[in-house]
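URGENT: need a sanity check before tomorrow's submission.

F., can you look over the Response regulatory domain-containing protein record below? I want to be sure the sequence and structure line up before it goes out.
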Amino acid sequence: MRMRVDFSSSSEDEEFTGHGYTIDLNANGCQIETATVLPPGRYLTLRFYEANTHHAVQVELARVRWAEGRHFGVEFIHRDAKTHAYFDRVSPPQLMSGPSGAVDVALTIMVVEDNPDEMLLYSKVLSSGGHKVLQAAGSIEAMKLCVTQPAIDLALVDVVLTVPVFRLQDQAAQFHRVNGPQLVRDIVAVRKRIHVLFMSSLNHAQLKDHGVVLGASSFLQKPFSKDQLLSSIATTLEQPPLVWTPPPPTKPDSIRWKD
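Structure tokens as predicted:
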């Protein structure tokens, strides 16, 4: 179904708007034909218009997955139930296709897991699904990937990571050994926005002690099956990513004069 679409994006660095026409529109995403050049990884707000109407159907958050010439493909990340039902009605659900017509579902997923056997298992499951897997055995390895890798779509993070007890921390080191929740805060500060899925075998009370509140954070209970892992990743991607919020500026101490 071909529809006019307006798209916009804003960040600390720039703000822009553009328009184009949809190709292969479905409930999961679409191709857009436009004269505006957008890089992969850009987050957008989309407004779709049916012919002969000014009423817009809005997708609150979408991500540019690929770009080629005058076309780019977007994945719908966050839209309300009414919008989802609308796209289901006007176009049959299918996977978003790439510029050559191939199915474009590949993600770059960073797995942070200190158990080698579990790391191997998760990596095999994700790789078999066509995803690129970045392996990090702990927080230091994860942070090094965050500052060197151009794209990370999602971080799959174990809540409890091995933190050496008897090893003195080098205060001058760039990164330190920390557990999952603190690592995620550090990741968001570097990447600015990223999808995160926590995993753990801890119970609810133990998770709360570690700073993970169920319902507020995407979470997968260990042990889990292949289908549960892939389903949880899909659900996490449908939600808005974690976004870095700069701390409020500190006010200088007021000067008090004494008589």
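My own read: The chain has two domains: 4-90, 108-243. The longest helix spans residues 116-128. If you see anything odd, call me.
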